[in-house]
Amino acid sequence: TWKWVVGPMFLYLCERLVRFWRSQQKVVITKVVIHPFKTIELQMMKKGFKMEVGQYIFVKCPAVSKLEWHPFTLTSAPEEDYFSIHVRIVGDWTEGLFNACGCDKQEFQEAWKLPRIAVDGPFGTASEDVFSYETVMLVGAGIGVTPFASVLKSIWYKYCHDATNLKLKKIYFYWLCRDTHAFEWFADLLQSLEAQMQERNNAEFLSYNIYLTGWDESQATHFAVHHEEEKDVITGLKQKTLYGRPNWENEFKTIAGRHPGSRIGVFLCGPEGLADTLNKQSISNSEADPRGVHFIFNKENF
């Protein structure tokens, strides 16, 4: 038995040593941004830190817990001179981080008062392959939208500086939320992309659909009253918020009809049940002919 145990234990110890070494490297918090509904954004810098879109890191805050490491998806783009994460305050550790960063105080916090942060990573995910396709479907469920914040930011930078070398030509973005709490911080990014594409006369580059799945009768009535307004009353975007859940079969068939003979990347960050649905639709809507349309499914779960 010991022969089978020694190998894995050696690899585990190596991994722990690497994490300890990384945790000793200095991380500087350059900015803390408080978003609505107790979501904070930490912008950080670390010497030698290099990332790709959609990657994640492990974070430890010794002021909150000396042993706990928590994974967070990076919401910044590789083109930015910092890396960032968005943290929703939903538990003891996140509440401790919120307080340690001084977010519970009204006065301005000096940088030297911010807590020490240890970072391990970044680590790769399926979202890194998004630039390998000409057409992609991005599906985020709730807070699962975070890796696509990084993707869309990077696309925005690439599009601004050298759009001719960008292989990606069309994005279909779907965001499913139970309530409006998660809209605020991400809607700003979508508004910037929307304005940028209109300025460059390429508004068709990004098609996005926001679904509010936890709606009730009063919300539906409010939606009906304001439907004719130029911008959506919830997100401030030109694309109106939809109520209920997408009809995935119709969505896949529509996209397949618009892009015949192409490979379409389907990227999901969400629950396992939604992953099963999208995987089945990707298989059933892909043609047997190698020259036909093919949906390539990629997922990461939380």
TrEMBL record:
Residues 19-129 form the FAD-binding FR-type domain. It is found in: Cell membrane. The keyword tRNA-binding does not apply. Catalytic subunit of the phagocyte NADPH oxidase complex that mediates the transfer of electrons from cytosolic NADPH to O2 to produce the superoxide anion (O2(-)). In the activated complex, electrons are first transferred from NADPH to flavin adenine dinucleotide (FAD) and subsequently transferred via two heme molecules to molecular oxygen, producing superoxide through an outer-sphere reaction. It comes from Bucorvus abyssinicus. It is a multi-pass membrane protein. GO terms for cellular component: monoatomic ion channel complex; NADPH oxidase complex. This is NADPH oxidase 2. It catalyses: NADPH + 2 O2 = 2 superoxide + NADP(+) + H(+).
